[in-house]
Amino acid sequence: MTIAAVRTHRLSAPLHTPFVTALRRTTTTDTLVVEVVDGDGRSGFGEAPQVWQVTGASLAGAEACVREMLGPRLVGRDADDLVARCAEVSRAVAGNEAAKAAVDTALHDLAARRLGVPLVRLLGGTALRVPTDVTLAAGDATDLAAAARQRRAEGFSVLKLKVGTDAAGDLERVRAVRAAVGPQVRIRLDANQGWTPREAVRVIRGIEDAGLDVELVEQPVPRWDLDGLAWVSDRVGLPILADESVFGVRDLVEVIRRRAADMVNVKLAKCGGLHPARTLLDLAAAHGVGTIVGSMMESQIGLGAAASLVAAYGTTAVSDLDAAWWLAWSPVRGGIRYDGATVVLPDAPGLGITALAEVNMQPTS
């Protein structure tokens, strides 16, 4: 069965709470949905989130990449030859990982739908429930403590605290959150590149000395500073998780070679989709590097793909799959849902998405 069409749709949906990090503040999810259609009219979906400050991906750029380069290569090709199609997408253009991820995910979704199985089954797994952490957006100590208590009451037991906006006050932020939730809740930190190496070591050692029981620290220094990342990793006891420093396989190889981090955060929109994400997870496992799978403010489409990957492959720590939880309403019908701190995958073909919502959805091709 050949691919009959590749369509794109711009989606914008509001968040119920502003999402604030050391790099950005947003109140909406803005993403490009890619729809790959076969000759029988079945559709597979993927998405490319707009994240200017992290990946540099934009709606316009992803749309141009799909419409001008990726889509034309797929139309008329065999939809069931998944490995070959994904390899063609990967080779078609330099960079443009978010656009590639959207097409790669749509191809996987379509393949699973054509077989009549959930995406997780196509990837080799059977689990339909995956635990997630939840993010506490950057703020002052009082606001963070209040948010932590609320998230704990909602059933979350792993909290990801955004720091890096003010190194001098970050220790007190962590102390306030720990006091608010008690010893049973896991706390992890994400500095989003916000510290210098010296600031990172000072803050992390302060946390260790205070006995605040932090699980890990994510991306403490700028993404390009692998020497600084290794310098920090060598001087603190807490595990260091590389996020923005690792987009693809070559990045992870360099992190491993330099012993720059203990763990890696694999994100579909950074690496180019499910096909390369599985390579990253395998490479990390082969070298004893810990893993989580993360998200980048995607909707239920991208989040469903990421959660399916975790359900099939597993990670060494609870993954960061709360992106769609932040949405004020679902921009799709069907797909994943949240049950407290658990992502529930649909027992339905592919991603289980039956339609795109009409509100704020603009077809572009």
From TrEMBL:
Substrate binds at R24, T135, K160, S295, M297, D320, D322. Keywords: Isomerase, Magnesium, Metal-binding. The lineage of its organism: Bacteria, Bacillati, Actinomycetota, Actinomycetes, Micromonosporales. This is Dipeptide epimerase. SMART domains: MR_MLE. Pfam families: MR_MLE_C, MR_MLE_N. The active site is at K162, K267. It comes from Micromonospora olivasterospora. Its cofactor is Mg(2+). Residues 141-239 form the Mandelate racemase/muconate lactonizing enzyme C-terminal domain.
